[in-house]
């Protein structure tokens, strides 16, 4: 395999975005693994890999990756929302609700507010 460079990591990241958009989340994960191994601090790559795990119904890896993103970016509304969806799919509604509410508090988008269900309290 040819030596990986920062440029090839960028190309792999962009290709992974395309694979995820084309509904090939497992292919996206394969491309992102070496990118993250070389750049473990890269939150964007981790967030994309978390989305790919979620799309592939690999809920535990998705959960762990979203949590890692949130450790670094606790104000990332999308990561809270995506983690909530992951927890919801894993049949953990109480934990999901907390993250839905955090997402809505950080970014009052209509879909985040609807998922947070504040008015039902």
Automatic annotation (TrEMBL):
Pfam families: TPR_19 (PF14559). InterPro entries: TPR-like_helical_dom_sf. This is Tetratricopeptide repeat-containing protein.
């Amino acid at each position: 395999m040819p030596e990986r460079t920062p440029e090839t990591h960028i190309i792999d990241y962009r290709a992974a975005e395309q694979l995820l958009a084309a509904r090939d989340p497992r292919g996206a994960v394969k491309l992102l693994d070496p990118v993250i191994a070389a750049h473990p601090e890269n939150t964007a790559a981790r967030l994309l890999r978390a989305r790919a795990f979620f799309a592939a119904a690999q809920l535990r890896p998705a959960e762990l990756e979203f949590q890692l993103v949130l450790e670094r970016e606790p104000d990332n509304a999308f990561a809270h929302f995506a983690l909530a969806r992951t927890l919801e799919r894993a049949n953990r509604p109480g934990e999901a609700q907390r993250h839905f509410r955090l997402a809505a508090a950080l970014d009052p988008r209509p879909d985040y507010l609807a998922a947070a269900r504040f008015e039902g309290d």
